[in-house]
Structure formats: structure tokens, C-alpha cells
Amino acid sequence: MITRKEIDHLAELARIDVSEKDRDSLTDDLESILAYVSEINTLHIGEKTGSPIERHLNVMRPDGEPHVPGLFSEDILREAPETEEGYFKVQKILP
Amino acid sequence: MIKAEELTIKKTGELLRARAFSARELAEAFLKKIELENKKINAYIEVFDDCIKDADRADRAIAEGGGDALTGIPLAIKDAILIKDRRCSAASRMLEQYRATYDAHVISRLRGAHAVFIGRTNMDEFAMGASTENSAFGPVKNPHDISRVPGGSSGGSAAAVAANLALGALGSDTGGSIRQPASFCGVVGLKPTYGAVSRRGLIAMASSLDQIGPIAKNVDDVEIFFNAIRSKDPEDSTSLEYRPNSVPAGRRTIIGVPRDFLKGVDADVLAHFEQTLKKLSENGYEIKDIAIPHIASSLSVYYILMPAEASANLARFDGIRYGLSVQGGDIFSTYKNTRAHGFGREVQRRILLGTYVLSAGYYDAYYNKANAVRGLIKSEFEKAFEEADIIATPTAPTPAFKIGEIKDPVSMYLADIFTVPVNLVGIPAISVPSGTVSREDSSLPLGFQAMAPHFGEERLFEVGRSVEKIR
Q1: Rg (chain B; Cα; Å)
Q2: For chain A, what is the radius of gyration of the CA atoms?
Q3: Which of B29, B74, B159, B381 has the largest CB neighbor count within 10 A?
Q4: Cα separation of B390 and B376, whole Å?
Q5: Which residue stretches of chain B have pLDDT < 50?
């Protein structure tokens, strides 16, 4: 069972302002999706089958010559809602 | 007079090099056709009228004797793949005004081949859907029956090719988003091996599953297109050197069929699939029943892992760096307002679901368990490929359904039942039109899905061409 209160908590974690109206239908949707996927909890599988992710190796790029500072800044900042002197502008975080 | 419906990539390449018409004339003919016919199916979100300049460059390359297989070919690009300085929205309000700051790796490859990008195609928002009804810019309609969906999420790409509004199109496939619309629209779609094609510049949904691939009218064209885009890209650390893995010479190709998995399929679809198998067996293939015991759990595994990864990937849309920004009184309100206004219903649903399965207390029961079952399914596929060279199923359990017909999310997710195992395992698969079925007054295409081991694309092209011959 997923409750409306849990949906509120998930919406808070996911930083989405869910409206009252949407909250009810999202609760029902998640409920039915979770009922479907919970089927995997009935499977008894052996110990040996670890996550395929764990068998993969990370691929790191060797350190090399960095690009010229500012080379892409103008293009990237062009897309930002608010900028100031070559930086993204962000509302204050601490009260 | 250029007749788009008679052209394929292969044939057009030959005609361009023989100077039967120029790339500019070809691009103009497609732009004109799109202007007349796109309104009916809504396949394109934006048409690039200035692609004539790309066509002129292609003509110069041909004049200098430098044209290759895709030079001058008009291609449509899914609206999730970045083309520098063009808008790229993922069919979302969140990115409606966003202009790409760089070219996706596949776009650089295609530019190098002097292909012509004719427009960006409609899709389910952030590639989340199986019908293209989740687009913020209206649904795409199936060219075979405009009351029906084209499939999704690459519905615009498949519909554009099916309606002869492009000779090929790029799509992306996380759980079936190239193959299922290809099946619904009667075109060929390839989901390549994970790592065969760079994803740099693809707007990410679920990074352990996402793959870019080609859609075209026939298998030869898909093969040409795939060979043009596959390559190891140092800027996508999941991309790999290509090591072809074909069927050993001197024996028949064995097609394995996981028959237990086909229960619940539409009766006409199943009968048609069996008929295709029968014809393949009469044409030199060996058909064999195989077991993949946990394959039926693939959809559950997928609908845990995919939303988990999507919720992390979509955290970047915060109203600060790019895309939509809906200001609030403080920074947290700005995040929450932006994401409430920018994301549509299905996207919000999947982000919340992903947040749930990753949250403390549920992580082991869902995310970890799903990863373990994914590992098990992967090892079962490896075993199955010791017995068979190809594994076959229908691409989708039904033909194209009506727009608005499927309302609840779980029923919609079932449209992906035969396509998701491929993404979980990372192998390649192709959907090839194998015939049609009648529904009301319409004749609707059906797709035959062939899967191969990693780097087995050549096997898929071989069996795909056989399906084309016998249908």
C-alpha cells in the first residue's frame, strides 16, 4: 500500500510540486505499478547472480591537456535562465 | 519528378552519384512533401528549411567524387538527439526553448558523411511511452490509420519514414522505443548492441539501457545507416570497439523461440508469427523451442531499474542551468515549480516511482532485487545463445492500437513486453515488417523481432532480409 502521505514525501524528495488533484491519481498509478513489479519479490534466485553492474569496470579518461578556460562558457550560459558576469545566477541557499 | 515512395537510401545514393537529380532537388522535394503531409500525422516537431545548405554541401562532395552511402540522404532526427544550435526539446515543455550547445556524436558522424538533416521528430516526452501520446506537442498519428498510434517513443521517426517524409530516421531505444514503433508503422528498426553506437548527445533516460539506432524502409538501408553511425567514442565511456559476431559458415542458422513467453499475445499476431517461422524453416533456417525461464520477469525488472535511473538522470532539470525556469520565493520553490510545470504526467510518474524504489527501506526489495534478476536473465540469454544463433518473438503483442484506447499505465507498459529483455541484456535486436493484419477497415503492419548475441547485427540483417523475401 502506498499512501497519499508517501506520495507527498516522494514529491518533496524529487522536488516536484504535485497538486492536490494529481496527488490522488498518482497514488493510484504508483499503487498499480508497484503491484505489478512486486512480482519479482516472489522469485527465489540463487546467490551467484550478482548485479550485472557490479561486473562492469569503470572507464576513466587519462588526465591530459585541459581545454582553454572559457572556450564553451558563452554557448552554455546562453541557455541559462539567469546569469551574471559569466556565472549561473542562483537564489540564496542559506536563509 | 522525384517520387519519395519509390526511393530507398541505397537506391537514392546510386541516383545521386549518377546525377539523376541533385541533393538540393531531393531535399526540396522532401520539404515540399512534408509541408503538405506532416500536418496530418504530426511526425515532425520542427522542419529545418535551411537544410538546403547541407544539401548543397552534399552536392559539392558528390561533384568532387567524395560522396558515400549517406551523402545527400534526407534524414529525420528524434528530438532527443542534439544538433548544435538547433532546438532540442525531448518533446517536453521543460526544453521547449533549449538550443543544443554541441553535436551528438552520431550527428558528427552523419555530418561527416554529408547527410541532410531535414527535421526533428516528435516522440513521447523524454522518450517515456509506447504510443507518442505523451508528447507535449500533440500525438503522432499512424500513417496506416490516422486514428491509431504509431507506437513509441520514437513514433515520429517511424511515422516519418513510413509516410515517405524521410528516407531514414534516428531513434533511441531504452525498452523498445525503436522496434515497437517500427513494428506499428511497417518499417525496419534496429536497436544496436549496447555500446556499439555512442550516446553522447542523446538526452538520457536510463543510462544502462539507452541506445541510439536507425529506422529505415528496409534491412539494407538500416545496415547502411548502422554502419555509418557505429564507432567507439572516447567521450562515451560505454562505447566499444566493434567486434562482428556472425554465424559460423557451413551450417544452417538456428532460430530459437521462447514459446512459453508468447502466451497472452493477440491471436492474429501469434498465428502470423508462427506462419513466418514456418516459411523461414522452408527457407533454410532451423527453428527450435528454447527456454529462458525468467524472461517473463523482464518487464517488472525494467519498470524498477528504468525509473530509478530516469529519476537520477532527470534531476538535472532544476530551472537553474538550462531549460524552463519557473521562479519561486526561494530556490527550493524554484526547483519544485519548474519541475511541476516542465514535466508532463508520465515523466512525473516515473520520477516518483524511481524515487520510491531507490528510497531507504525499499532499495533492497526493489532496486537490488531487480538488478539480481537482471543478472539472472542475462545469464539465461547467454545459455540460450549456446543453442540458437537468433532468438525470435513478435515485436509487440498487438498491432497499433487506437489513440486514447489505453489509459492505465500498466496496460501501456505491456506494449513493451517483448522488447525490454533485449535492453536488460544489452544485445542487438531488429524489427522487420512481416505482413499485415486487418482491424476494422485498416490493414495494419506487424513486426518480426530477431535478437542476436552482442555484436551479432550481421545475423539480424541476414534473417531480416529473409523475412523480407518470404513475406
Answers
A1: 21
A2: 23
A3: B159
A4: 19
A5: none
Say which of A14, A38, A93 has its CB closest to residue B355.
A14
Measuring CA to CA, which residue among B468, B451, B447 is closest to residue B389? B451
Mean of pLDDT values over A78-86: 95
Phi, psi dihedral angles at B120 (to 5 degrees): -110, 140
Which site among B356, B383, B412, B427 would you substitute to test the A interface, given the most A Cβ atoms closer than 10 Å to its Cβ? B356
Question: What's the one-letter identity of residue B28?
Answer: E
What is residue A93's predicted lDDT score, i.e. its pLDDT? 85
- Which residue from B98, B331, B343 is facing A16, i.e. has the nearest CB? B343
Q: What type of residue sits at position B116?
A: V
**Percentage of chain B lying above the pLDDT 90 cut:** 97
Asked if B170 and B410 count as a contact pair (C-beta separation under 8 A), the reply is: no
CB atoms B297 and A32 under 8 Å: no
**Torsion (CA) B290, B293, B295, B297 in degrees, nearest 10:** 160
Q: Which of B165, B210, B180 has its CA nearest to residue B33?
A: B165
Q: What is the pLDDT of residue B66?
A: 80
The domain at A4-42 falls in which architecture?
Orthogonal Bundle (1.10)
- For residue B172, the cross-strand partners are B212
- Residue A50's pLDDT is 52
Domain B4-229 has CATH 3.90.1300.10: yes
**B431 secondary structure, DSSP code:** E
CB atoms within 10 A of CB B395: 30
ipTM of the complex: 0.93
For range A12-38, the mean pLDDT: 95
> Which residues of chain A are within 8 Å of residue B319 when distances are taken between CB atoms?
81
- What are the pLDDT digits (tens) for B345-375? 999 999 999 999 999 899 999 999 999 999 9
Cα–Cα distance, B56 to B22 (Å, whole number): 9
